[in-house]
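User: Structure please.
Assistant: Input sequence and predicted structure:
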Amino acid sequence: MNGFAPVKLQRVQAVVIGASAGGVDALMEILAGLPASFGLPLVVVLHMAESRHSQLADIFRRRTPMQVREAADKEMLKPGTLYFAPPGYHLLVETDRSLSLSCEAQVHFSRPSIDVLMESAADAYGAHLAGILLTGANADGAQGLDKIGRQGGLTVVQDPAEARMAVMPEAAIRLRQPDLILDLKSIHSLLLEMGKNSC
């Protein structure tokens, strides 16, 4: 919990989440059951094959009463809504807090890239952003989470000992000590707390 201050939790206005290998199950655990009244936008990048149609929005729509959708270009972020990056596009948060899609080159062999989402969201929200990095088999997300931390945002990493693939959380921890290293159950509780604080 190095350097964590509860004030960081109180000022969160948006949450960005990144995951790769093992990520669907991890996301199920932290997102299932979040209430319709959840007061923040949640934006998720999960690595997937670019050629595949994503069913993530459909899957999670059945598991949370929140609004759930695949992110669309130029869409404004809304509280109580869970956005998933579509396959084959980087997902960025613009300074006016709208979403944009990009076909620029892969980052860490991935498009969408967690770093691209987190770095753009850090520019848009500064200290009012929370970043959460989950299980994965490469270093995508480490730079993005580092930028969120440098901007004063809240940084959370899944405990590598619990992660299906520890490479991604370990890379983030090596680059910058996050505010919190938590198991999935505790990340779920933290999200519930963030949602309450924002109401």
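The first helix runs from residue 6 to 10.
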